[in-house]
Known about the structure:
This protein is of the alpha/beta class. Helices cover 38% and strands 24% of the residues. Helix 5 (166-179) links the parallel strand 10 and strand 11 (182-188).
Amino acid sequence: MSVRHLEAFFDPESIAVIGDFAAPDATESLVLRNLLEAGYAGRVMVCSRKHKEVEGIPCHSSVSRLPELPELSILCVSPYDVARVLNSLGKRGAKAALVLSGGFSRGQSKSERVLVDSILSVIREHGIRVLGPNSLGLLVPGARLNASTVRPGAARGRVAYVGYSGILGLAMLDWAGGRGVGFSHFLTLGDQYDVSVADLVNYLAEDPGTRAIILQIERIDQPREFLSAIRIASRGKLVLVIKSGLFAASRGYEVEPVPGLGDSEEVISAALRRAGALRIEDLEELFDATETLTRMRPLQGERLAMISNGFGPNVLATDQLILRSGQLAELAPETVLKLSKVLPRFWNQRNPVDINGDATPQRFAEALKIIGRDPGVDAVLVTHAPTEAAPGVATAEAVAPVARDLYCNVLCSWMGKRSASEARRLLESEGLPTYASPGKAVSAFMYMVQHRRSQEALSETPPLRLVENAERRLQVLEPLHTALSQSRTYLRPDEVREVLRAYGIPYADARYVNDIHGAEEAARELGYPVAVRIVHEAGCMPFVHLPGRVQRTAAVAMDVRSPEQLQYAIVNLSDQVAYQWPDSRILGYEVQCMQRGLHSLKVSMGVSRDPLFGPVLFFGGGGAMAEIRRESAIGLPPLNHNLAEGLIAESRIAGVLAARGSEGQRALDKLAELLVNLSQLVVDVSRISGVEIRPILVNQRGVMAASGYIGLGEPAEMAIRPYPEELEEPVRLEKSGREVVLRPIRGEDEPAHYEMHQQLSQETIFNRFFQYRSKLTHRELARMTQIDYDREMAFIASAQTGDGGQETLGVVRTWCDADFERAEFAIVVRDDQQGEGLGRKLMEKAIAYCRGRGIQVIFGDVLAENRRMLAFVGRFGFEVGDGETPDVVRVTLRL
């Protein structure tokens, strides 16, 4: 994942087009004409062995004979010549090459493999960045750059498009050209020999001219880097992802299924949601979403009002809004009163507003003006059905100027074909998002709503949870080591109970015994009635270890009321196990007090492993039907409380809990806590490959797990890096002797971080932020405390307060570039803690961390008048140089 030299693709000062130019319609000929016709202002060079001049530009016979090293080289040569040309460029120190040559991925022969390996070898040797091969090229309309085979190019806009498929890319460009939609960047990746989708997302995330990013992807090769890039981009931009290849028949390659959960596509959707991206299902939805994000301002709220000259269109739109969990705006009494003066006497007096079939263009405009100024309305959908009273074009002409003057967003749906086409073109030319049906308009509006919700989710602050995990890990290591020493890939029921209880998951009491006599004694001590389960090897496996959708043999007898029934049950169950699992060795018996399911809700939760994203969590129903249907909500660890609640909300269980009122809310809180604890278990113990807790009984007495299963395997890496607890370090302050902990920041630290900022003097704030800030907003604080530990690190000095809480005394931050070569730092210490040596300890911590990550340079910007800070960094060996403005200097430390 690297942005090194990517600027050479998008803003090059010079370009060389390399090819034979054998025909006017050859790839290289098209690219050269496109460059010239687009008005590219940089220097253009041509390399061809067959011509002396092309398009009035002198040709050079080889790369070595070019008068200067091009910043970007475009290769349109034979596949057999790509490695040779790249090698020549690399020897001259070239930074970037766009390879439009094709023919590499169509076959799997040894000769083709040799070609690929030779190109990869050249890339590694010279460090040249390569986009392609098999790429359509790239367009940057704002820079008048069309380095592609696409004609006539694209209009300038604020949406970036990055795709795999050239054909889908052409379709998107054709649609955009017909709708007046523009792009900040447009390119297709081709075979991704070097530059990846994660690289480009990282680059575009920092581009001020890009408001939204559209990704058309077919597969994800580097999940951790991919999600990290999207999470960073989603903080400030709308990211839409259309993922093709939902089924094996369409993919053309096999994808390993997620054990126990089925299709990996469910996990991909969960991963994209976690990263803050919106997933689009098909190209038509993508067009509608692009229409919306191109023309709509960011939403201030989710409340939608609707206007139509008929009842039917409003019904369709309302149905679609409710189905997608949208929110109808409630009109203020003042709005209803004003509307009553311009609408027919019998109008419905509520949202959606039916202005009647005899509505004129003027009535449309007046109704929109009144509703659009209602403080309870965040967006308005105007739906027009063609009538004699309201011709399509005349109505559009009346609505457009009103929509422009409103603060809220306005969406338009002009239904029909012949009479509506011209009206839609007029509305589009006025910058209004326009759709052929109200249902499409609502669907597109909900993409913006989902983006707003994902932004809020990324900014949520979880409740304070300061849990020490060292003791928990010690409790679970013994049973894990015992199982691994015996070459077991599972834990026995008594070991499962020990592990889950250690992580705060209530588990029913039970006795684990070796023989039938032990079972009789356990039942007598516990008291009848009891449940007895035969423990055998196959029955200890969580379902995520079982092939396909094979169900586990229950091997359980319920409500056993006497020793005679107990003996009969054990013999009968033993016969069942021998018949269904002949190779499964019986390990013993588990006797448990009956856990009555009367009036109980049964749920399940657990852990599986996705071949791509690693550990995944699931939550769903826990009854017999759940065993068959396997319908579960899926999420990625690590979880906090809010993310756990969101996971539950995606399941069918959420509606059942909501219907139970306050009791259901208590259960929801407890289940979310269990999910967080389960998430922490797989974070702490990477050898756990699968967990199934089924059923969990939820009733008035609380929450209790009746049975559980844990499988073991090789350590697995999570797609989202968890809190790096290993970086915590206790230190003692020099003057006061107070004990503090230097540790990475967490989302739970937001309240303490706010309090720290409130205790900073205005001078300290100005030196840190280069401006006076009395308060930080919730979103700013969330961004400061909920960080991506892969690319950003913030170490805080945390100390315990007299009332047992935590306070933050100082913080040092580092932001790594995507190449992990340079890191920017910033540091601030609370005024009343200065002079304690805390700043030095924080800075030493940050430098050691960057050195450990392989960072080569640490830099920061300091106000030139801040002599105290300049003296501070000078003690660490920072060098002082010029900054971006005269009043700022840049300090740099080479590691």
